[in-house]
Write a structure and sequence with these properties.
InterPro entries: ThsB__TIR-like_domain, ThsB_TIR-like_sf. This protein is of the alpha/beta class and 155 residues long. Helices cover 34% and strands 17% of the residues. It has a single domain, classed as 3-Layer(aba) Sandwich (Rossmann fold), CATH 3.40.50. The chain is globular.
């Protein structure tokens, strides 16, 4: 199978930036991700929130899929919350992915409320969610969330 190109915006807590490289490696020859998110390699020193949003909004809009990497502190990020809500406003598919080895991570409120799928660190499920829009609602260990009336309720 040849490499498929997919434009994605990867939202992440700054401490979890390495997760973007690990996601690219995990997906290997399935997809070549064109990441539009802000990283230390593509950093700007802007301080004005409205200006920063004006930079992020078109990047989220250009992406075909919005991915949020979920680590131990992601739920504390106001920027992750805003990016997820902006992706929902722009009607982008939203995929929450627990970083490998993450356990007992609280979901960001916006992911809990708006994600189309939430998966553990599992290549086939991530690809299935990106490519086919498959819906999963999992805990950080990849097991199915139990006793959930709405798939967007907290783990």
């Amino acid at each position: 199978m040849g490499t498929e190109f997919k434009n994605v915006f990867v939202s992440h807590f700054h401490e979890d930036e390495d997760g973007i490289k690990k996601l690219k490696k995990l997906l290997g020859d399935q997809y070549e991700l064109h990441n539009y998110s802000v990283t230390s390699e593509k950093f700007n020193n802007a301080k004005n929130d409205d200006y920063i949003k004006s930079l992020l909004r078109p990047l989220i809009n250009q992406a075909g899929t919005f991915i949020c990497l979920i680590g131990p502190n992601t739920h504390d990020s106001d920027w992750v919350d805003w990016e997820v809500r902006e992706a929902a406003r722009l009607k982008k598919p939203i995929i929450g992915i627990f970083l490998r080895g993450t356990s007992d991570a609280d979901l960001p409120d916006a992911i809990n409320d708006l994600a189309d799928t939430i998966v553990g660190w599992n290549e086939s499920k991530i690809v299935d969610a990106i490519k086919n829009g498959k819906t999963y609602f999992e805990k950080s260990d990849g097991s199915q969330r139990d006793n959930v009336d709405s798939p967007r309720e907290t783990c």
